[in-house]
Amino acid sequence: MKDYDLIIITSNPFPLGLASTNRITTYAKEIAQTHKVLLLTYACSQHESNSSPYIKGSFEGIDYLYLRPRDPKRKSFITKFYYRIITYIRFYFFLLFVFRTQSIITYFNDLFYTRSLFLISKIRRIPIYRDITETFEVYFKSNKERKKNRNIQRLYDGLIVLTKGIQEYFEGVNSNTFILPMGVDISRFDKIISTNQKYFFYCSGGVLERDGLLDSINGFLLFHQNYPDYSFKIATPINPDDSYHCKVMDLIQNNPCIDYLGIVSSDKIPSLMMGASGLVVTPHHDYITKGFPTKLGEYMASKKPVICTSIPSLKENIPENCCYMVEPNRPDKIAETMSHIINNEGESTLIGERGRKFVESKYTVTPYLNDLIHFIQVK
User: Fold this and answer.
1) What per-residue confidence (pLDDT) applies to 139?
2) pLDDT in tens, 343-371
3) DSSP 141-198
4) Which residues, in sequence order, are CB contacts of 268 under 8 Å at separation 6+?
5) Domain range enclosing 290
C-alpha cells in the first residue's frame, strides 16, 4: 500500500476548476509542504495531455488521480452507466487496497458515495471530515431532502466550515467544527502586471442570480452611456433553462459593449482581473446558504477596486475602506461608483491596495494551518 497523510475526495476538476478547487489548492499545497497529500476526484476529465484513459499527476506538491475514465465525446445511457460503475469500483478499490491514510476530507453532496465512504471508514478506521462552504437550502427541493442531508453530517468525525453562519446551522447535528474562512492564494496574482484596459469584470461558476448580475449589467449600461469606450467582461457558464440566466443572455446579445467570455479556466482569471478598471459582484440580499463569495477575496487580492453591495454578511466581514459598497438593488449607484472609480484613480488605487492588505491579514491559510492539521488528526 502507498501511504499518505491526507486524502481529499471531490467531484470537482483538478488542478484547474472552480472556486471550490481553488479552496482545496490553497490549504492542500500548504499541508503538502510537510505531509503527503493525495486528491481523488470523480469529475469528468477532458485532459488530452497523455494517451492514458485515467488522468493522474502532481500539482503544487499534491498528488492527484481521476477515478473516472476520460469521457468520449458522445455518451449513450449504457456508456454513462458503465463509466459510473467503473468509477465506483475504482473508488472502493483504491481506498481499501491501494492507499493508506491518516485522514480524509470530502466535498460530497452525492449520498451514494457518502454512504460508501462511511463504510470504508469503518473498515479502515480512518476519520472523515466534511468541508462545507454552503448550507443545503438551494440544492435540495424538499424539506425532507434538506433534513436528510443535514442530519447525515452527524456521521462525520468533524466539519470544516467556511463561516460562523454555517457552523451555527449545524449546531445540534455535529458539534466538532472548525472554521476555515475563505482562503485566497495571493501568489496567483503576484507575477501578473496590473494594467487598466478600460473594462469592468465579473466572474462566476454560474450563480448569477445570487450575485445580482442583472443589477451589475444594468448599472454598467447606465455608466456606458457616458463612457462608451468601456466594456463589461463576463466569465461564467450560462444555463439556457434558467429564466434569470436567459435575461442575462438577452442583455448580452443586445449590447455589444458586454463581452461574454463563456467559461474561462481558473488559471486565466487572475490576468482578466488584473487588466480591469474595477471588479463587480452585487448580491441583492444575504446569502441564504450562509456562505461567502470566494470571488470577493480573489477580487481584493488583485489590488483592483471592488464594487459590492452593503448586504449584512459583507458589511460584517469587509471593512468599508477596502472596497466600494453600494446599496443593494440600485443599478444607478453601481453606475455612479464606476464613474467615481475611473475619475478618481488615486483613491481607487488606494482602495484596491487596502483590499489586498486585508486579504493578506485575514483570508490566507497560514494563520489557520497548524490548527487545521491538528483538527483533522494528521501527525
Assistant:
1) 65
2) 999 999 999 999 999 999 888 888 899 99
3) SSHHHHHHHHHGGGGSSEEEESSHHHHHHTTTT---EEE-PPP--THHHHTS-----S
4) none
5) 187-362
Closest CA to 108 of 61, 70, 172, 155: 155
Residue 48, pLDDT > 50, answer: no
The reply to whether 262 and 179 lie within a common domain is: no
Q: How many helices (H) and strands (E) does the chain have?
A: 14, 14
d(CA 78, CA 172): 43
Same domain, 68 and 80: yes
pLDDT tens digits along 17-39:
767 788 899 999 999 999 999 99
Rg (Cα) of the chain, in Å, rounded?
Answer: 22
- CA distances (Å), origin 97, targets 55, 127, 344: 19, 17, 62
**Same domain membership, residue 209 and residue 194:** yes
Domains in the chain, number: 2
Q: pLDDT digit string (tens) for 66-114?
A: 988 766 555 677 877 888 888 889 999 999 999 999 999 998 777 778 8
**CA dist., res. 358 & res. 322, Å (int):** 7
Same domain assignment for residues 172 and 212 = no
The reply to whether 252 and 267 lie within a common domain is yes
3-state class of 52 per DSSP? coil
Q: Give yes or no: residues 297 and 336 share one domain.
A: yes
Q: What is the pairing mode between strands 62-66 and 56-59?
A: antiparallel
User: Across the strands, what pairs with 7?
Assistant: 38, 104
Tell the burial category of 60 from Cβ atoms under 10 Å away from its Cβ (0-12, 13-18, 19+).
middle
The reply to whether 179 and 201 lie within a common domain is no
Which CATH number do you get for residue 354?
A: 3.40.50.2000
Name residue 293's amino acid.
Answer: P
Q: Collapsing DSSP states into helix, strand and coil, what is residue 252?
A: helix
What is the pLDDT of the chain when averaged over all its residues? 89
- 369 and 357 within one domain: no
DSSP state of 95: I
Please give the Cα distance from 81 to 13 (Å, whole number). 20
